[in-house]
From TrEMBL:
Similarity field: Belongs to the MurCDEF family.
Gene name of the record: murD
Name of the protein in its database record: UDP-N-acetylmuramoylalanine--D-glutamate ligase
Organism in which the protein naturally occurs: Aureitalea marina
GO MF entries: ATP binding; UDP-N-acetylmuramoylalanine-D-glutamate ligase activity
Subcellular location: Cytoplasm
Main location: cytoplasm
C-alpha cells in the first residue's frame, strides 16, 4: 500500500511537492483552502493528482501518513493544529525534496540579501563549471526540480517559514546573511522565536559542514550563544580583519579559507552598497569552498546584474532616476536602500505592516528624503513616524497614482525610490506584482 501524502497549498511549493510525491509513488492528495491558480491546476491534471480548492476535507486530510505544508500556511491554521494533535508529521517542501536527492546542498537564509546572495552564488558555481540548480524560495520549487531532473549541486534560498518545517534537512554549506526583526506576526511578536527559526538552517550540520555568517550582526552573534553550531564557522565582516573568512582591508575584499586567499577591489564590484559587499563576500566564500577558480569569481562579481525588484534601475526620465526596490518588504531592507541613495529622494513606502519599527530609518529619511508617498490601505503608522521629518507626505491608493505624484514632485537630479518596507498583500498579489506595476507605470510616464 502506498503512503498517503497530503499536500496543503496549491501554489509553487505545494504543486512541486505533489508532483515529486506522485513520482515517488505516494498516494497524493492536494488541498487548498483558497483558489488554485490555473497554471498549477494544469500541472496537477497533467500528473493525474487529486486536488480540491476553496476549503479542506478535514476527515480525508486526517487520514494522511505524511503532510507537506506550504510555507504561507501558519502553524496556527485549524487544519495544521488538528494534524499536530493527531500526531501526523507535517513537514515543509524543502524537507520533503531533500529526501529524494543526493546533491550537495548550499542553503541561504537571512532577513535580507538572501535572494541576491543565492542568485550570485548560483551564477558563480554555474560559471565555475559545476552542475548546479537554483531553487527554493526563488524560481522553481525545490521539489519540482528534484522531480524533473538530477543535478549534483543545489543553491537553495530558504525562508524561516520553510525552515520551521524541517526535520533532517542538512545543507553542506549554510549561509546566514543577517537577522533583523521581520515576519514577527508569525512568531508571536517575539524576536527570539524568529532567530531560533533562522538557526534551524544549521541544526543538522556536523563538523564536516560549513556555516557562513555575518560576524557584524549582533543578533546573529547572540543567537550563536543560544543556538550552538556544530559546523565549521566561516564569518564575513566589514568591521574587522579575520584570520579565516572574508573581510575588507584597504578597499579590497579578502577571502581567506584553507590557506587560500582571494583578493578583489571593492570598486570593481558591479553591485555597489555596503549590503552588496556583504552579499559578494558570502557568495565568494561559498565559491572558494567548492574550489571555483579565483579568476572566475572575480569576473562574475564584476559582471553580475542586480536581481529584479532589488534596487533595480528602471529608467531615467528628465534626469530623474526611478528605482524599483519592491523586494524590500521589511525595514532593514529599506534601510539599505535609503543608505545607498546619493541624491534627494522621493520615497514610495507602505503596505501590510508586519510589526515594523520605523525609528531606525529616521536619520536616513531626515538626510535623504524630500517627500514621502504612502502606498497602502493603512498609512497611519508611517504618517506618525515621519510626519515631522519631511515637508511633504501624500497618500496614494494605486501604483499609477503613486508614480504620477512622484513624477510631479521629483526635480532634475532626484531619485524616485519604491522601497515599501512592508508586505504587498493589501493592494498587490505579491512583491513581484508590485514591482512590475511600478515599472509599467514608470514606462507609461
Amino acid at each position: 500500500m502506498n503512503v498517503k501524502l497530503v499536500v496543503l497549498g496549491g501554489g509553487e511549493s505545494g504543486t512541486g511537492a505533489a508532483v515529486l510525491g506522485k513520482k515517488e509513488n505516494f498516494e497524493v492528495f492536494l488541498s487548498d483552502f483558497g483558489q488554485i491558480e490555473k497554471k498549477y491546476k494544469q500541472v496537477l491534471l497533467h500528473h493525474e493528482i487529486e486536488w480540491e480548492e476553496n476549503g479542506h476535507s478535514d476527515a480525508r486530510i486526517l487520514q494522511a501518513e505524511l503532510v507537506v505544508k506550504s510555507p504561507g500556511i501558519p502553524d496556527t491554521a485549524p487544519i495544521v493544529r488538528q494534524l499536530n494533535e493527531a500526531g501526523i508529521p507535517v513537514i515543509s517542501e524543502v524537507e520533503f525534496a531533500s529526501r529524494f536527492t543526493d546533491a550537495q546542498l548550499v542553503a541561504i537564509t537571512g532577513s535580507n540579501g538572501k535572494t541576491t546572495t543565492a542568485t550570485l552564488t548560483n551564477y558563480l558555481l554555474d560559471k565555475g563549471g559545476l552542475d548546479v540548480s537554483l531553487a527554493g524560495n526563488i524560481g522553481d520549487s525545490f521539489a519540482l526540480d528534484v522531480a524533473n531532473r538530477t543535478v549534483k549541486n543545489y543553491v537553495l534560498e530558504v525562508s524561516s517559514f520553510q525552515l520551521d518545517g524541517i526535520a533532517d534537512f542538512k545543507p553542506h554549506i549554510a549561509v546566514l546573511t543577517n537577522i533583523t526583526p521581520d515576519h514577527l506576526d508569525r512568531y508571536d511578536y517575539q524576536l527570539e522565536n524568529y532567530v531560533a527559526s533562522k538557526f534551524r538552517i544549521a541544526m543538522n550540520q556536523s563538523a564536516d559542514d560549513y556555516f557562513i555568517y555575518d560576524a557584524d550582526d549582533p543578533i546573529i552573534r547572540k543567537g550563536m550563544e543560544v543556538h550552538p553550531v556544530r559546523a565549521r564557522l566561516i564569518p564575513f565582516s566589514l568591521e574587522r580583519i579575520l584570520e579565516e573568512g572574508a573581510y575588507v582591508k584597504d578597499e579590497n575584499i579578502i577571502v581567506n579559507i584553507n590557506n587560500t586567499q582571494f583578493i578583489m577591489p571593492v570598486a570593481t564590484l558591479n553591485l555597489q552598497g555596503k549590503h552588496n559587499i556583504k552579499n559578494a563576500m558570502a557568495a565568494s566564500t561559498v565559491a572558494t569552498l567548492v574550489q571555483i577558480r579565483k579568476e572566475t569569481i572575480r569576473a562574475c562579481l564584476e559582471n553580475f546584474q542586480a536581481v529584479e525588484h532589488r534596487l533595480e534601475k528602471v529608467l531615467k526620465i528628465n534626469q530623474v532616476n526611478y528605482i524599483n526596490d519592491s523586494k524590500a518588504t521589511n525595514v532593514n531592507a529599506t534601510f539599505y536602500a535609503l543608505e545607498s541613495m546619493t541624491s534627494p529622494t522621493v520615497w514610495i513606502v507602505g503596505g501590510v505592516d508586519k510589526g515594523n519599527d520605523y525609528s531606525e530609518l529616521l536619520p536616513l529619511v531626515n538626510e535623504k528624503v524630500k517627500a514621502i508617498i504612502c502606498l497602502g490601505l493603512e498609512n497611519d503608522k508611517i504618517i506618525s513616524a515621519f510626519g515631522n521629518v519631511v515637508d511633504l507626505m501624500i497618500e496614494a491608493h494605486s501604483m499609477s497614482d503613486a508614480v504620477q505624484v512622484a513624477y510631479r514632485l521629483a526635480k532634475k537630479g532626484d531619485t524616485v525610490l519604491l522601497s515599501p518596507a512592508c508586505a504587498s498583500f493589501d493592494l498587490f498579489e505579491n512583491y513581484e506584482d508590485r514591482g512590475k506595476q511600478f515599472k509599467e507605470a514608470v514606462r507609461n510616464l
